């Protein structure tokens, strides 16, 4: 990794540019980085006619890591065949080959009462959703006529094994008691039956020391709401991971606090994975964009921390950013999504002060 890593920044749409600006100030507070800004989503369609221009993709490929803001306008195009902002994100993931999406979720001290779950249910929760990101329904063959439509879910053994290895690696790093819970719908879907067989076979061959169980996705959704502390590492496919990781927002109290890392290669302890993509899991929230900083930048700031940890191998700086966010929240920082009045700039200043 170079002395001054090159970061490709795609602010996106809606609140994306607002929260990205705050996160970049935090990034520059912990080190020296070269930042190159590029277009994606509706902003790119407006200027170039495509949701992911070649120049943006080239910039991401040349960078050490990519920071992505939220994408989309919330509008449904009149012409279903016209370019959609969200297509830019799917194209970017496919082009970068980021097949492993990590979504850490933990209960933050001082926020136990912020969400709908009782404090004793969330206290001490510390889990990671490991979501396969480049297969399944979102990338399968699809079609639509005036009378019907179809989407195809397909997975190969190799795709399942490579994402499962990352889940087992994370469990090993967490400690000998850390459990992998593989989530599927094997009682109905052929892809889930293959998923379960491949995950179990890999565990038996290479990770017999890591506890493993299998849950149907509906049961997993229920247990995330009733017993989230039962999970350490949740391993699942693309669509299930998308849905379940949004559900986990009830644990810290807001989807605005959740970040994600998308990796194109296995985790390399201490070195970082070049070419990875980092983004908050919240949407572009066009209804609050440009309204005096109503959006929380904390998910974007925590995505910077994940970039420092997994993308650049800068564990100390990552810890500092995460601890600063925790400190600010313990000291009473509450943005609108947490029932408070702090603006995005207030949140940024609180984190910078803690740093």
Automatic annotation (TrEMBL):
It comes from the Bacteria. SMART domains: Iso_dh (SM01329). Keywords: Amino-acid biosynthesis, Branched-chain amino acid biosynthesis, Cytoplasm, Leucine biosynthesis, Magnesium, Manganese, Metal-binding, NAD, Oxidoreductase. Its cofactor is Mg(2+); Mn(2+). Its EC number is 1.1.1.85. The keyword Transmembrane does not apply. HAMAP family: LeuB_type1. Homodimer. This is 3-isopropylmalate dehydrogenase. It comes from Streptomyces longisporoflavus. The lineage of its organism: Bacteria, Bacillati, Actinomycetota, Actinomycetes, Kitasatosporales. The gene is leuB.
């Amino acid at each position: 990794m170079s002395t001054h890593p090159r970061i490709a920044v795609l602010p996106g749409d809606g609140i994306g540019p607002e929260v990205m600006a705050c996160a970049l100030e935090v990034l520059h507070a912990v080190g020296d980085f070269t930042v190159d800004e590029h277009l994606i989503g509706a902003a790119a369609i407006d200027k170039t006619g495509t949701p992911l221009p070649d120049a943006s993709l080239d910039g991401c490929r040349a960078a050490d890591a990519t920071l992505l803001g939220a994408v989309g306008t919330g509008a449904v195009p009149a012409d279903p065949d016209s370019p959609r902002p969200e297509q830019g994100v799917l194209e970017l993931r496919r082009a970068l080959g980021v097949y492993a999406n990590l979504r850490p979720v933990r209960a933050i001290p001082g926020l136990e009462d912020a969400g709908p779950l009782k404090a004793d249910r969330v206290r001490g929760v510390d889990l990671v959703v490991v979501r396969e990101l480049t297969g399944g329904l979102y990338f399968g063959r699809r079609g639509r006529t005036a009378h019907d439509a179809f989407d195809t879910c397909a997975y190969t053994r190799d795709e399942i094994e490579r994402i499962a290895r990352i889940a087992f690696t994370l469990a090993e790093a967490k400690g000998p008691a850390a459990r992998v819970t593989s989530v599927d719908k094997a009682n109905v879907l052929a892809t889930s039956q293959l998923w379960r067989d491949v995950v179990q076979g890999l565990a038996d061959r290479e990770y017999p020391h890591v506890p493993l169980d299998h849950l149907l996705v509906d049961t997993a959704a229920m247990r995330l709401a009733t017993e989230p502390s039962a999970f350490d590492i949740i391993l699942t496919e693309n669509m299930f991971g998308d849905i379940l990781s949004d559900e986990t927002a009830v644990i810290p109290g807001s989807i605005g606090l959740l970040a994600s890392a998308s990796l194109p290669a296995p985790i390399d302890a201490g070195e970082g994975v070049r070419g990875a993509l980092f983004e908050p899991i919240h949407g572009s929230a066009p209804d609050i964009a440009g309204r005096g900083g109503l959006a929380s930048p904390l998910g974007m700031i925590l995505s910077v921390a994940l970039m420092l940890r997994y993308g650049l191998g800068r564990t100390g700086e990552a810890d500092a950013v995460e601890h600063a966010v925790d400190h600010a929240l313990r000291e009473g920082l509450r943005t609108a999504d947490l029932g408070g009045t702090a603006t995005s700039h207030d949140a940024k200043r609180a984190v910078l002060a803690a740093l």
